[in-house]
Fold:
Amino acid sequence: AMASQIPLSLLLFSAETVDVSVINKKTWKQDQAIVLFDAVASTSFNTEELSPSVLQGFSCSSIQGLTTRRIQSLVFASRNRQGRAKVVFKETQLTCMYNLLRGNLSQKFTDYPSDMLLYFGDNNVDTSNCRSYFTALGAADFTVLSSVLNRESLLLNNARSCLGISGVSLSRNNVEVLGNMACTLQSSYIESSDPLILEKLKACKNFSGSQVTAMETLLLSGKTPTYLRIYKQLLFKCLPLSFFFKQTVKKRFLKSFMPQLRREKVQKRKLKALFKQISVVRTKRGAGCTVGNITHVTISDPSFPFGYDSTQFDLCLDVPVVKNNLNTITEKVDDDDFQKVILVKLNQAYPSSIPDEQVQLLRSVSRVALLNDIFKWNVTRIDTLAALMDSNDGPWAAAESKEIITKYLSVSGNSLGSSELNAIGSNLCSLNTSTLRTITPDSIRNANPVDVASCSAEQKRVLYEIRNSSLSSQSASPTAYYHLISPYLGKNECCLLALSVFCTLSDKTPL
Ligand SMILES: *[C@@H]1O[C@H](CO)[C@@H](O)[C@H](O)[C@H]1NC(C)=O
Ligand SMILES: *[C@@H]1O[C@H](CO)[C@@H](O)[C@H](O)[C@H]1NC(C)=O
Ligand SMILES: *[C@@H]1O[C@H](CO)[C@@H](O)[C@H](O)[C@H]1NC(C)=O
Ligand SMILES: *[C@@H]1O[C@H](CO)[C@@H](O)[C@H](O)[C@H]1NC(C)=O
Ligand SMILES: *[C@@H]1O[C@H](CO)[C@@H](O)[C@H](O)[C@H]1NC(C)=O
Ligand SMILES: *[C@@H]1O[C@H](CO)[C@@H](O)[C@H](O)[C@H]1NC(C)=O
Structure:
């Protein structure tokens, strides 16, 4: 498990020194696997024994110089296999595989990674085999398709003519064949197809609003007796779907369901939306706290703060209760207006400055803070910085992020070391270049790669220079060097730096 913490720059091996059987037993992140793959691919190690963790490193730049046979066996090794995790690839990896092998593709579609099938052309599938093609394609993750390629509608049209589908009502059998393609279907298909489609939709990562409405229509059509069970499972994906819950049922439902949703780390955005939808505003102003004083016991209830609107929440919540139960309150309160109430009370509890121990408990509440609130926060410790920067609690605006990091750095002894870089992640782009220049090559070498997509060209240039000098002691191969350096470069900078061979290999979207 520790292997995934190894910095990229320590992963440079040459094919002569690499012990693939050791590498193969460890768990790698994809950016690590891409660096490792260079050396692994060119050994004679049996590709069928490579782990998904290693195989996910396939890249067009790593397989240069390999025979077509070897490339083919690396692709075959990445097919979906029973009892083994799926090998997850990005679109550029999949189109690269396709382009390399397109001249000699077999009709045994299950030999290929299912996601690669998304890119097969009409001429790669014999008409007599189209059904088995679509059956294998049904296991693919359609969300890897970028919309520019417009593959979704093309695939659907081909499937329609292959399976003889006319109209939008899909039979049970066709739904079974199409599998995950259900996730790309419009509402008209969903509401008029066999209810089996709901089972298929459970596997989708995301839904549009009209897909959700169509599912509700189908659920309530009475065609499916088990709708409540499926509904609950769907809720994980497409909150909120709360319209047929009575007020009393809602509370019971939330009690059992909210803790489950929190455990599943459902996005805050969705929890906020669910809470808004399920809550009803029913109190008059000026009546004082009528719902009930909020105590330690109230807060411990899994459905808390259900039943309060933001006015009642304000009136019923005392400052000392916030001060003494901050951890439990911020864990459960997702609504923006409620969160603002919490900040106001916290400011009342601490008139001059709020200590690190409390600041690090704020979670997503921190994201509704204004600069004026943040001025009062103590951010002197790395654990406070890391807690505030946790991306699970939502994104930061640049000004607020800069203020927090600057506060931390203003404490004597604190600097932008590796732990800080790992904690800050892409929020690094909120800092100006003079602050960025204080990062040492050592810190950047030992830190995880930073996502600099939101940095300006000037910021990227500064980070690139530090990254470059951190690698000067390493005799990396050009491809490995490229993998280490490319996260810090935009496409243009990359090409300016005469790395154009690699840019054209990795950055363009083929097809
Ligand atoms: C095509 O692939 C098959 C294996 O699927 C291989 O045996 C054959 O040699 C390849 N043909 C060419 C022309 O590369
Ligand atoms: C999910 O769908 C919504 C609305 O279509 C979109 O805004 C959002 O980016 C999607 N999320 C993912 C992870 O695809
Ligand atoms: C709620 O708390 C206030 C003081 O904070 C108190 O005056 C009031 O009696 C309490 N109400 C109930 C119902 O306990
Ligand atoms: C906040 O930090 C300052 C300076 O480090 C310190 O003097 C002050 O006591 C801290 N405040 C609290 C509430 O811990
Ligand atoms: C960069 O940011 C730091 C911290 O906020 C600030 O002290 C410094 O003046 C800024 N430098 C420039 C050139 O804006
Ligand atoms: C990167 O570092 C090498 C030496 O380590 C140096 O020769 C080269 O000029 C640097 N490139 C840039 C663009 O700074």
Notes: Residues 2-204 form one domain. The two ends are 37 Å apart (CA to CA). Confidence is low (pLDDT under 50) at residues 236-249, 491-511. The CA atoms of residues 191 and 214 lie 5 Å apart.
